[in-house]
Amino acid sequence: MDVVLLTISTTTPPATDLGYLLHKHPGRMQRFESSVGVAQVFYPQASEERCTVALLLEVDAVGLARGRRQGSQAFSLAQYVNDRPYAASSLLSVAMNRVFRTAMAGRCDARPELVERPLALEIRVPAMPSTGGSELIRLMFEPLGWQVSARVEPLDLTFPEWGDSRYFDVTLSGTLPLHQALSHLSVLLPCLDGGKHYWVSGDEVDKLVRAGGAWLARHPERDLIVRRSLANQRDLVLTAVGRLAEADDVLPETLDDAVPDTSTGETVDPAGTTKALAQERITAVLKALESVDAHRVVDMGCGEGRLLRELLQNTTYTEVLGADVSPRALDVASRRLGVDRMPDSQRARLRLLQSSLVYGDRRLVGLDAMVLQEVVEHVDPDRLPSLERSVFEVARPGAVVVTTPNAEYNVRFGGLPAGTMRHHDHRFEWSRAEFAAWSSRVAASHGYLVEVLPVGEVDAEVGPPTQLAIFRRSETTRRAS
């Protein structure tokens, strides 16, 4: 019988309140049957100054293999021949959800005032697998406020010359409510070794969104966590990312660059004019589309449909597509555009699609132009190569129009603290030189010509508030295709 161990300690007095939060009495050892084996909960230490709870999971390896009802035969056979040690992974996550279900839900009927109380916590997992080493563990936990200590374990104590294993003795230290800490563990532990012991189906999206909530939507490694949690199944990943965007209430295209001036409570117009920058962007995009003689256009990350409205009003555009990862954004766009009240001739020109910039979508192949208006900065930098492939290799439109903030202009925002970005969901913001370099590289790599233009009033020192690039497929690549 293989075992997995997790301990949670607190020094916030009275430390024995941990028992109330977990609904597990410090004076008793409790035993729970679960789908992955037998879990036992006990307290090695319980005093007013320090209290520690231990979750010991006895994994029933043979039962897991015999009970598998889905998945390939090869994967089922692997359960018998795989000699990896059992460690903190999806097995422990399942046991935690069984044993600490009420605590994870943020309920404490006996002492409800304790639920949101931050506790000084120390969580130790003596055998945590990580395919990305200690760096991956830090990438997962440190953005959530944890201090991470990760000591790699040798492959074999008897033969140290064999080198290091992929297992770590990990200690997490932080101050936060217990239910949040349990949520972090439940979601992140299965991601570290990139696999789950059970078949990943559609209901995993519900579990992930429910367990992760707002913190996962804002995590800088959100996409990596979602991909690993859902076994890289494209449709499930796309659905989860869309629902997490809704949980975080992020509709990037609807966010103006104007930010509140904290000293006056008023909104600062970044361009220094009465004309909203959002409308200036739309005007610039429409001018760019006209310059490339586009008739069939898709707005990627269409949000509430501001650009779509303008496109539909011009019969030059014979096919108008709005694509967004968020189903809610598409619903908002449909309502605001009045799709159900449109004349048949106009409705026939419009399609709304759930799609993502980082996954190639064959439905978007062959269009005259694709617009990426204020969306590229919402993509994690390590996912930009995927965006480039899906846009410039898979969809490969005749032209691509990209707008993005100019990071240098941020100093002109009266209410924006120095060193911060314009929106909490921005994963980066480019300077003029950085945007020009990215645009030139992408154009050269994929057979496009590119022109970079300013949007908004140009400041003599820091440039325009927004920058725009027009990518045109070169004549050589047009003839080749």
Q: Helical segment tally?
A: 17
The low-pLDDT segments are 68-85, 249-275
Question: Structural class of the secondary elements?
Answer: alpha+beta
Largest sheet: 7 strands, antiparallel
- Which range does the strand content fall in? 15-25%
Distance between the termini: 60 Å
Q: Helical amount among residues, as a percent range?
A: 25-40%
* Physical arrangement of strands within the biggest beta sheet: 2-3-4-1-5-7-6
**Topology, number of strands:** 16
Rg, rounded, reads 26 Å
> What general form does the structure show?
elongated
Average residue-wise pLDDT: 83
Strand and helix layout:
Elements: E1 2-10, H1 17-22, E2 30-34, E3 37-46, E4 51-59, H2 61-66, H3 73-81, H4 90-99, H5 101-104, E5 119-129, H6 133-141, E6 147-154, E7 164-176, H7 178-192, H8 203-217, H9 222-229, H10 234-247, E8 259-260, E9 267-268, H11 277-291, E10 296-300, H12 306-312, E11 319-324, H13 327-337, H14 344-347, E12 350-354, E13 369-373, H15 384-395, E14 399-405, H16 432-446, E15 448-455, E16 466-473, H17 475-480
Parallel strand pairs: 10-11, 10-13, 11-12, 13-14
Antiparallel strand pairs: 1-4, 1-5, 2-3, 3-4, 5-7, 6-7, 8-9, 14-16, 15-16
Helix pairs in contact: 4-7, 7-9, 8-9, 8-10, 9-10
Short précis:
The chain has 481 residues and is α+β, with helices and mostly antiparallel strands. It is built from 17 helices and 16 strands.
Q: What features would you describe in this structure?
A:
By secondary structure, the chain is an alpha+beta fold. The chain has helices at 17-22, 61-66, 73-81, 90-99, 101-104, 133-141, 178-192, 203-217, 222-229, 234-247, 277-291, 306-312, 327-337, 344-347, 384-395, 432-446, 475-480, and strands at 2-10, 30-34, 37-46, 51-59, 119-129, 147-154, 164-176, 259-260, 267-268, 296-300, 319-324, 350-354, 369-373, 399-405, 448-455, 466-473. The chain has a 7-stranded antiparallel beta sheet with strand order 2-3-4-1-5-7-6. Mean pLDDT is 83; it is low at 68-85 and 249-275.
